[in-house]
Amino acid sequence: MIEFEHVVKEYNGVSAVDDISLELPAGKICVFIGPSGCGKTTSLRLINRMIEPSSGTIRLDGTPVSKIRAEELRRGIGYVIQSVGLLPHMSVRENIGIVPRLLGWDKHKRDTRADELLELIGLSPGAYRDKLPHELSGGEAQRVGVARALAADPPVLLMDEPFGAVDPLGREVLQREFLSLNRELKKTVVFVTHDLDEAIRLGDRIVLMRSGKVVQDDIPERILGAPRNEFVREFVGADRALKRLSCFTVESHMHKAAFLDRALLQNGRPPEDMQVNGTGMLWIVDAGEVLVGMCRRSGGKWGDVREVRAEELGVTTVSSLRDALSRLLGRGLKAVPVLSDDHRLVGEVRLTDIEAVNQSDGYV
Amino acid sequence: MSSSSQPKLSARERFRVRMIMGSADVVGPVLLVVGVAALLWFAANPAQLEALLRMIFPGRRGYLYERASLMTLLGEHLVLVAVSGSAAAVVGISLGVLVTRSVGRDFLGIVRDLSSLAQTFPPVAVLALAVPALGFGFKPAVVALFVYSILPVINNTISGLEAVPPDIVEASRGMGMTPVQILLFTELPVAARVIIAGVRTSVVINIGTATIGAVVGAGGLGAIIISGLVRDNYALVFTGAVSAAVLAFSADWCFARLERSFYIARSDR
To answer: Does a structural domain hold residue B9?
Structure first.
């Protein structure tokens, strides 16, 4: 757990951080967001003592960080910055091994760990370990930056706009990967961004800041659904209803889906006496429960089975309702299939589920 | 550079490959080896040297310097250059590092100005000033050469270190490196190429300038050149000048190779 207690940071009499008190719970992703100059990056850098506070105390699991030698503190906290900052004369493997090397691990242990982490972030160790940073794409470099921060398995990760320099498409991929990565690793993450969508997608908690002060510190649903004042309302924007859908995962709102093994089709159609509830969609799967087709019942009759490509049509359990809505509208369907990572059908999300979300809490 | 075709090589091995590939033009090394071999052979065989000089400058007397052999002069010259050059490299790099640290930053301007000023002094003038303090011989020559060749080292060290991207210094600090570790693991390796280039310039200038050491009796190839000038004996001038040139070319080539083995900053690529 990270605690801020009346933390102030002044530069020449101007407060960059103005009396902040916060408790960031362990194992959660906490996003600092706000307009530029609001003090979000300063707050982040205070945690690993890249900057010293003018007054106030920051505690890491109960110990004031000022009581720990700065270098030692930083070796125990993962740090990822926007420009990545891979050392250009070192290979990917050497870069990942920097903190372990500072901690005195032997070479064999460092190299094994580097390969393990490359595997974890989805880069093949054989192809990547000996590359130099300039041979990597922006997204790859950013992944290596995350791997480097994770090298010594620190409990806390500080990320300062880590995906800011990556193109929007790549950024979404990185966000998704990071989210599922941290589901596994359960690091305490402090994440700085100015991108609200990113904050909503990643944050378990959002701390909205302005001129060095915390304006609202809440779960994403409430930042969007119950903005505390005009500033927050303006910051989250008019499309907050849509944005709010990003707060919910498909997993928590999906239904059981009607499905049929491909082997049971008769003349390419489901048996006529087969009935389904709900939206009238029937998903066709193969012997391994992998989605291969779909069929609609209309006017009491089954239509033709349409072959589909699972990854194009379906969403995954960790997708947001916003993704699901976009698929629904894009395909003109009343339901989309929910798939596991290996494309097995696990359920469906219906248009009515999404409507229900925005109508709950009396929020429209 | 397409390195994807050689995925088996480690980063260091690839640097080595690049070094060897860089010397793929064989003219340089061959000329160098021939030049150095010829120089040493003639130095070891004064009779052959005399025969050669007789061919180039016919109809004179006294083709050889009678006070010392060419081998001795070469040795003296190399010692002069090695002592003053390595002192300039060590002191220059140290000063460059010092004034780019936060504690020494106040001295950055002064050190830059002083080293530029030192370069504007003619070496002979430095010699003239050094002789009263240090007497004749080896010492004042080393001091003059040191003062004269420190500028490129300081300048390149400062430029090299200042060109290290701030984000990688920030990242190094954020990972928990101490200031000394940041200098050793991050700043010096990234700046190494530029720093070595400074040492290269310094040494090459030094080899040429060392010939004036003879004025204060420090020996070296300058002795034979000055003696030749005084006696209007071009064979002697020629021997000294060509020898110094061969030394300078070889040193330049060796440092160029050393330089190439270090990391190349992105802007140079």
So the answer is: no
